[in-house]
Amino acid sequence: MLKLFYSPGACSIVSHIALEESGAEFEPVRVTLAQAEHLKPEYLEINPHARVPALGTGHGVVTENIAILNLIADLFGKDGSVPRDDPYAAARCNELLGWFASTVHISFAQIWRAARFTRDESIHPAIVAGGRENLENQFAEIEALSGEGWLAGGRFTAADSYALTFFRWGRRIGMDMAAFSRWAAHLERLLERPAVQRVLEREGLAPAEFQPA
Ligand SMILES: N[C@@H](CCC(=O)N[C@@H](CS)C(=O)NCC(=O)O)C(=O)O
Fold it and tell me: Which parts of the sequence belong to the GST N-terminal domain (predicted)?
């Protein structure tokens, strides 16, 4: 059986939602980052990069959200991962996932993990400030992308779940999320999905954490 290694509220929630939407049987395994469980030797054997998500499969462990999401799409072909019936819809979804993982996520890393960019602590405040500035522009872009439809490929995909995650993180770093009303309305529709509700409950997260304070 597939095993998903996740931490509550981390970007692993994107793969978690995709698996839950797929209807596949899987075992969710909690690796709590706040308790440094991802640094323990037993987890480093699963993912030497010390990150979640990781997906245990009958063909070894797959890491990196985008690889996991594309595998879930190939295995199950359901909404919530990456479209499989239209190559252009798949490209749009992967395009957005790539930008989220390589750029928006990294702005948060600047704020929460400045030491990853330089050991020189005197530069950390500038790295953190740069992360915030980048996020202001990136969040404005997500707001502009949000509307009546889904973010990519004309259906619910992992890109929508990634945006859900960022909204909560935005609140955690004290950004004024009330400024993003289209994005918040978009997430309200996501929060109505039973699979999303089940994942939030399993991770111990309240739906209100994904809406403006
Ligand atoms: N490139 C990886 C990034 C995964 C990642 O950074 N995960 C975070 C949680 S959102 C993590 O495990 N952080 C642990 C740490 O930074 O020590 C992916 O897209 O899966």
Answer: 1-80
Selected from 3.40.30.10, 3.50.50.60, 3.30.70.20, 3.30.2350.20, the CATH number assigned to the domain covering 2-76 reads 3.40.30.10
Q: Is the CB of 33 under 6 A from ligand 1?
A: yes
* Inter-residue contact 11 to 51 (CB < 8 Å): no
Please answer whether residues 55 and 2 qualify as being in contact, where contact means their C-beta atoms are separated by less than 8 angstroms. yes
Separation of alpha carbons 145 and 6, rounded Å: 28
* Fold (CATH) for 87-193: Glutathione S-transferase Yfyf (Class Pi); Chain A, domain 2 (1.20.1050)
Mutate to test the pocket of ligand 1, among 5, 7, 11 (most ligand atoms within 8 A of CB): 11
Rounded-to-5 percentages of helix, strand, coil across the chain: 60, 10, 30
- Residue-wise pLDDT tens for the chain (213 aa)? 999 999 999 999 999 999 999 999 999 999 999 999 999 999 999 999 999 999 999 999 999 999 999 999 999 999 999 999 999 999 999 999 999 999 999 999 999 999 999 999 999 999 999 999 999 999 999 999 998 899 998 999 999 999 999 999 999 999 999 999 999 999 999 999 999 999 999 999 999 999 998
